[in-house]
Design goal:
The chain is built from 17 helices and 13 strands. The chain is an alpha/beta fold. The structure holds pyridoxal-5'-phosphate and zinc ion.
Length: 447
């Protein structure tokens, strides 16, 4: 695959989001040494701007679903915007990204809005958008090790999907993995993924926030590399969601993007992608953002109600949207910036609302996980309260594959989810093998 050859090399460095201190990219650093602020990867925009928008659009288009490794990946097809300096030999890709953007015309008509599309980020190697960040983080670890930085293992705290993605990419790279999971709070599919990939799985008698504290302590030793989204390398991969979405919509973003939020890395990534598109003059108009939370784990919602000054930490309680059961989100300062830059709002959904919203959208051909259910339920609320207007176009970010949450899907249709009234539960019709009874049963369902 032909690559662009700039005069001024494409490059990126680390930068503190609070005090602006800058650091070399090739080191182990998660927080500013001066002020303890979060760190971003910052790209040399002047270098990127050596090529005009038309050249970038054309380059990305040629690489989209290109048959060769690793440019076939939705992330590495945008390598110059992600990790420009990486040696292609160090890239660990499992074919992430390039996920479908599915229009739901009937549902948009029902809701009375101009258009509704769902970005299916869960249609991916380990079944969630976490793959987009992990391919970059693990590839970066490979390149750090090649530079002689003694990283022995990678580690994360997880509500399930992060550990599945980390375990897969690290196994592909032959790097040991340690994952910390909250005992009994993740789905069976999510637990079996890291186990299958040979990860050291430590199940802790605490919640996600408790696991996060442990992993932070363990990774103070620089030989164990932190893979949570506090680490900005993750954000670099995940931000390609915005770029890919723009590409799939002929370089025009929608009026609204609705995204479920837990630790708030993904909304920060979404915003980073939009900023980069705008700075490179690839899009004219920027979208508004809605972060959707479970009402049982709603620290951003509560903070938003209070004008986004201080983070309103909560003790998250058990929710079907288990991947966003987080009360003390690490990327809160990044998310605040995202909401401020893109006229953001925060909405919340109850268990009943998220489960029924997921089921209703399933009737349009999707198979929604509970987190996408949260986003869909919040979108419906914004439509009914007039925040989203009839002329608006909307993209909902679907974060995981419904097959990872089969207990949720089955429970809904069997009508045994706690605090959920399954308004459209569907069950098999059990009959003896008698053709007349079968005909009668069919007749009663299609008129
Ligand atoms: C991780 C995750 C989220 C939340 O993303 P954050 O970056 O933590 O806000 C939402 N949905 C699913 C399925 C996830 O795995
Ligand atoms: Zn700083």
């Amino acid at each position: 695959m032909e690559q662009l050859s700039p005069h001024r090399p494409f490059q990126a460095h680390l930068e503190c989001i609070e005090c602006g201190e800058s650091y070399d990219l090739y080191q182990v650093l998660y927080r500013c040494k001066k002020c303890d602020g979060l760190i971003d990867v910052v790209h040399d925009i002047e270098a990127l701007k050596q090529f005009d928008a038309a050249t970038w659009k054309d380059t990305f288009a040629r690489r989209f679903r290109y048959p060769g490794y690793p440019f076939s990946s939705g992330v590495w097809g945008k390598k110059e915007w992600v990790l420009p300096g990486i040696d292609l030999e160090h890239v660990i890709s499992l074919g992430e990204g390039a996920t479908p953007l599915i229009p739901l015309h009937r549902l948009a008509r029902q809701w009375g809005i101009a258009s509704l599309e769902v970005k299916q980020c869960g249609v991916s190697h380990t079944g969630s958008f976490k793959d987009l960040g992990m391919t970059v983080l693990v590839s970066h670890v490979v390149s750090l090790r090649a530079r002689g930085i003694p990283i022995q293992a990678v580690a994360c705290a997880s509500t399930g999907d992060t550990s599945a993605a980390l375990a897969a990419y690290a196994a592909a790279a032959d790097i040991p993995v340690i994952v910390f999971l909250p005992e009994g709070k993740i789905s069976t599919a999510q637990l079996v993924q890291p186990l299958s990939n040979g990860a050291i799985v430590i199940s802790l008698d605490t919640d996600f926030d408790g696991c996060m504290e442990i992993v932070r302590a363990v990774t103070e030793d620089q030989s164990i590399y932190l893979a949570n989204s506090m680490n900005p390398l993750r954000i670099e991969g995940q931000k390609t969601i915005s770029v890919e979405m723009a590409q799939q919509r002929n370089w025009e973003l929608p009026d609204w993007i609705v995204i479920p939020g837990g630790n708030l890395g993904n909304v920060s990534a979404l915003a980073q992608g939009i900023r980069l598109l705008h700075e490179n003059e690839m899009i004219e108009k920027v979208p508004k953002i809605c972060v959707a939370q479970s009402s049982r784990a709603n620290p951003l919602y509560l903070s938003y109600q209070k004008g986004l000054k201080d983070l309103q930490k909560v003790q998250a309680s058990r929710t079907l949207a288990s991947a966003i059961q987080i009360g003390n989100p690490v990327s809160y300062p990044r998310a605040v910036r995202a909401l401020q830059d893109f006229q953001g709002v925060v909405e919340q959904a109850s268990e009943d609302e998220l489960a029924n919203a997921a089921a209703r959208a399933d009737l349009h051909g999707l198979f929604n996980d509970p987190h996408t259910g949260v986003a869909l339920a919040c979108t419906e609320k914004l439509v009914s309260n007039g925040t989203i207007k009839p002329e608006d176009s909307v993209v909902v970010i679907s974060t995981a594959h419904g097959l990872k949450f089969s207990e949720f899907k089955t429970g809904y249709h069997e009508g045994n989810l706690e605090d959920v009234e399954s308004t459209i539960g569907n069950q098999p019709i059990r009959l003896s093998a008698d053709v007349e009874r079968v005909r009668d049963a069919i007749k009663s369902r299609i008129s």
